[in-house]
Design brief:
alpha+beta; eleven-stranded mixed β-sheet; about 15% helix; about 45% strand; elongated; LpqE-like; PCuAC_sf; signal
Length: about 170
């Protein structure tokens, strides 16, 4: 095989590899790093936090539900007039291929009357409802009052393990 033929073959191999890479599926929409700070008073709501990783198209998180909580609401904390305040939100936009963190001092969920079985197990199954019809299930770890918050993961990939991102 001559030098020109080897170069041509190498270029063809490189081009086909790049074409196959371009055909790869984009990263999916998924949720990870979910945890709940249990309220010291069982009559008061607990706060939940997580990270949503946007998929190939923008969507909106429309709500979160669980059979182990009487009610779940999405809220956002913000400073107004030098004081922290909280307001409910109906939806949260998730841009394509970006992350949106629900974290202390910002966006979060309020969980009312968490079932004692979930508290005993140390986790609560959550279902995240998106505007595109996807329902993603993920177990949030329950942190009791006084326990440290879980360490945030850099670029975590919770779409493996206990998450299942399937449209139902």
């Amino acid at each position: 095989m001559g030098a020109f033929s080897r170069i041509s073959a190498a270029c063809a191999l490189l081009a086909s590899t790049l074409l196959l890479a371009a055909c790869a599926d984009p990263p999916p929409l998924y949720v990870d790093q979910a945890w709940v700070r249990l309220s010291a008073n069982p009559d008061s709501p607990s706060a939940g936090y997580f990270v949503v990783h946007g998929g190939p198209a923008p969507v909106a998180l429309r709500g979160v539900m669980s059979d182990y909580a009487q009610r779940i609401e999405m809220h956002e904390s913000m400073a107004m007039g030098g004081m922290m305040t909280m307001k409910p939100v109906d939806k949260v936009d998730i841009p394509a291929s970006q992350t949106v963190a629900f974290a202390p001092g910002g966006k979060h969920i309020m969980l009312f009357r968490i079932n004692q079985n979930a508290v005993t197990q140390g986790k609560i199954p959550l279902t995240f409802l998106f505007s595109n019809g996807d329902r993603i299930q993920f177990d949030a770890m329950i942190q009791k009052t006084g326990e440290p918050a879980p360490a945030a993961k850099e670029g975590g990939s919770g779409h493996a393990g206990n998450a299942s991102g399937a449209a139902h």
